[in-house]
């Protein structure tokens, strides 16, 4: 499947040019400092990269979803998976549900400035005692007049310390999935506190934090969609996040293989380039075949997503296959680099650490398998 037109490819080149000139030169610094300036969102917004598929009346470009795929395939060339993740949270995770469910007032207050890069968004779902068990969240929102009063905590929140607003899951009703709502939550609300920044195995340039809510009062007009329907909205929103994860895993795996092949043509052992040894030529031939299968499955799922077809199974398959395969390719490419691969100065070392998150985040591989099995009737 080849979904890209010449216009898509022209757009792709513009993204690549920006990434290589404005982001890649800062890789070493931002990885070492474990973060990047908030102004990067403003730069991306000014170029239209934060509103690719959003309506023009909201400041977006009104382009099709394949342009978004081009954007994320090229963004990984900054070689900072953490930065790419933070941007994806802005464009594919915290804001799409506002576009779908938000009132005109909510869109003007949160979505429009997010598209411009003036405000940074986060998604607040995971809690200290609930990971994949979304139906069991404990953070409460109690009605008080025309307001909600929110108490609780969230953890592992990407963009947590820099977010201007959070698309936040709260319990407004009974226990279980039927009592959850989503609200737009401004982080300048009294009683909100950013906890410690979490130290991670990888994704160093990404901002991941604990968040605390103590008697935080927001107006009830900030609820997204219908009260107590939040669980269903979250499950729907997961599809874009999981599809984006599959896209970036395929793109990063492609980059790792390209880097390894270039290294293998130059690195000599036993009097010849190491890429000339059959064991490695066949290994890469196998992995490239598997990667192409993952790419085509991801594009197929994206095509269904664009056409608004039921694609939960296909997206789950794509996320499962692409994330697991990317980790296998990272292992092989690091091994291929030998001792050099174990050194932090080599990109493969960073990619090996960063990619370990993806079979965990946005629904673990085991959750993907469970979804697939249920949807297939067993």
Q: Estimate the strand proportion.
A: 15-25%
Mean pLDDT over the residues? 97
Uncertain segments are none
How many helices in DSSP terms?
Answer: 12
Question: What does the largest sheet look like?
Answer: 4 strands, mixed
Radius of gyration: 21 Å
**Name given to the CATH architecture of the largest domain:** Up-down Bundle
Describe the structure.
49% of the residues lie in helices and 16% in strands. It has 3 domains: 6-120, Acyl-CoA dehydrogenase/oxidase, N-terminal domain (Butyryl-Coa Dehydrogenase, subunit A, domain 1), CATH 1.10.540; 122-229, Beta Barrel (Butyryl-CoA Dehydrogenase, subunit A, domain 2), CATH 2.40.110; 231-375, Butyryl-CoA Dehydrogenase, subunit A, domain 3 (Up-down Bundle). Helix 4 (65-75) packs across helix 8, helix 9 (278-306) packs antiparallel against helix 10 and helix 10 (312-337) runs antiparallel to helix 12 (365-375). It has a 4-stranded mixed sheet. A 4-stranded antiparallel sheet has the order 2-3-7-6, covered by helices on one side. The protein has 12 helices and 10 strands. The protein is of the alpha+beta class.
In short:
The chain has helices spanning 6-23, 27-33, 39-46, 65-75, 81-93, 96-101, 104-116, 230-266, 278-306, 312-337, 347-354, 365-375; strands at residues 121-124, 140-144, 147-158, 165-171, 180-186, 192-197, 208-219, 223-224, 268-269, 272-273.
